[in-house]
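Q: I have 137 residues here and want to know how they pack in 3D. Can you give me a structure?
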Amino acid sequence: MDNLITAFIVEDNDVYAKSLQSFLFSRFPKIETKIFPIGETFLLKLNQNPDVVIMDYYLNSNFGEAQNGIEIIKNIKILNPKTNIIVLSSQENYEVVLAAIKEYGCFYVQKEEGAFDKVAQLIKNFNFKDKTAWDII
């Protein structure tokens, strides 16, 4: 199991999260994924050291008190600064997008047609040391 790539999906839209998970399984048969509906529950599992975190910015549509993406990213970078983060969102405020990219070293993918392919390409391009037991289709 140690050679698997682990991806944590932080997305409050359950259907979208499961669609992304299915897509990732189809592209990376040996990937392990976990879905979290809010960032706070995800942060409790950050000690599992995921290789990549794919997260929405808007995480409070179902849970009004939930932190937004930037707040969660700040916590990730404090607790595990080397985590690869892909923000997959429909965020239209470019200041937020730039903050995620510049300040926190995240990658940003707009939620639109072809977004899952862009996420897969980013994952493929990440350098995962000692992770050789996965196949890219």
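Q: Anything worth noting?
A: Confidence is low (pLDDT under 50) at residues 132-137. The chain has one domain: 5-112.
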